[in-house]
UniProtKB/TrEMBL annotation:
Origin: domain of life: Archaea
Protein name: NAD(P)/FAD-dependent oxidoreductase
Length: 42
């Protein structure tokens, strides 16, 4: 689940910041496949 600010960062192409925030967030449980897809966007 992304916040509005995260969505804006993605729209702005700031993928790295979003991914760092997601990986640091303790409640975010992401599948390896989803992480791989996000990394492809970098």
């Amino acid at each position: 689940v992304l916040s509005g600010a995260d969505a804006e960062k993605i729209a702005g192409g700031d993928y790295a910041e979003v991914i760092k925030a997601l990986l640091k967030h303790p409640k975010v449980l992401m599948s390896k496949r989803r992480i791989a897809l996000l990394k492809e966007l970098l």
